[in-house]
Amino acid sequence: MDRWSLGEAAERWQEAGSGPREGPGTMDNDEPLEPETKDEGDTVSASQSSDETLYCEAEAPTVVEKEKPGQESSETDLEIEDTEKLFTTGQKELYLEACRLVAIAIALVSNTTVLTLELADNCIMEEGILSLVEMLQENYYLQEMNISNNNLGLEGARILSEFLQNNTSSLFSLRLSGNNFKEESAELFCQALSVNYRIRTLDLSHNQLSDKAGEYLGQMLALNSGLQSLDLSWNHFCIHGAVALCNGLRVNVALKKLDLSMNSFGNEGASALGEVLRLNSSLAYLDVSCNDISNEGITKLSKGLEVNESLKVLKLFLNPISMDGALLLILSIKRNPKSKMEDIDISNVLVSEQFVKTLDSVCAIHPQLDVLYKAVQGLSIKKTLFTWTNPMKLIQSYAEQQKISVLDFFRSLNPSGEMRMPVGEFRKAMIQQNKVPINRYQVRELMKRLDEKTGMVDFRSARAPRGLPSTLSQPAVLSKAP
């Protein structure tokens, strides 16, 4: 059978959809694909097109029954039955999946409205990746594609790498988590991204990248000036790979978000990251949770925080850090008057009352800062369950006195008057305003209500509490905010 390009296939598809049809399925030579039945005629409606919904259905190839010769032996019968059984239990499913992917790719060739394509966990094979790549070469509207958890392996990486090296599409976000990528795959991707600066978001989490891959990624990051978000969590980077990766980060000027959680950086990796924070001026989000970093590594990391002017979020959850290490972190922020740090997550660390007092002094200098820790050591629940006024109730009371709406109060905090505000700026504005007395724990509770999942606080979700008690059941200092 001749193989058409996706562009030719799309044209034929459009011609088939717009031209007259004599039966439920015909080809160019007018031979019916399937015998027409009453049930199919009653249930299958005419094909429809929609800019919002894409629906593709693939059917199995028609089984052609052949009459067996009368003198055929029983052994031959068994062989034929086994062959047919093998096809129906294995190849049929693969065929159907390939048809669906090709159909989707053909439909997207000329599509101008679909911006995001989700194909995670779909058993995409080599043929499917080839079809998707060919589609992307002709589609200039698709911006985000998720093909995670498809076990693409080295061959899939090779196909994608070749596409990325000659990418002229609008694609800027590529999610490739859980695809069994190893060192060779990392090398291919890094070769492509060393010349392709269109991709801004890349997810390579849950793969099998180790130290050699760290070298390739470090070399790529030293050259790439377009990538802004990189997820390398749940891989196998150890000390050597961590140091090599950090060598590239030291000179990178574009990356803003880096997730390295669930690896094995250790204290030497933390030391290399500390040097990165001393020199890098673009990184705003760093997650090194569960990387076997102890107080020794925190000491080196803190040296970088003393001079860094870009980092806003630092996640250190599930590292073997004690209260002494936690103290080093917040003191490094205190010593840096230009620090932009907003969130530090050490929510597995048990702290002392003295730590809380020190944190209060740090927050007086940096009101945008919030530190999540496990609990205050030595304090019983009974001792800490004092009254904490519901922050929304306080704001509602003030708004009623001033004869304004709650929304007007929040809007007054934003100099631009807009309905959304960055998390750090909102926290700082709430602490520094003198209209409603509120502490940082109440601000944290308030931000939960205002839905700040994207790093922005949205005032439109603010509403006066109805039927809620005037006190919180437990102070926020005791538990990790979700």
TrEMBL record:
| Record's compositionally biased regions (Basic and acidic residues) | 1-14
Stretch list, region Disordered: 1-82
Cite the InterPro entries for this sequence.
Answer: Leu-rich_rpt, LRR-containing, LRR_dom_sf
> Which Pfam families does the record cross-reference, listed alphabetically?
LRR_6 (PF13516)
The protein's matches in PANTHER family, at most eight in alphabetical order, are given as: LEUCINE RICH REPEAT FAMILY PROTEIN (PTHR24114), LEUCINE-RICH REPEAT-CONTAINING PROTEIN 74A (PTHR24114:SF49)
Q: What is this protein called?
A: Leucine rich repeat containing 74A
Gene of this entry: LRRC74A
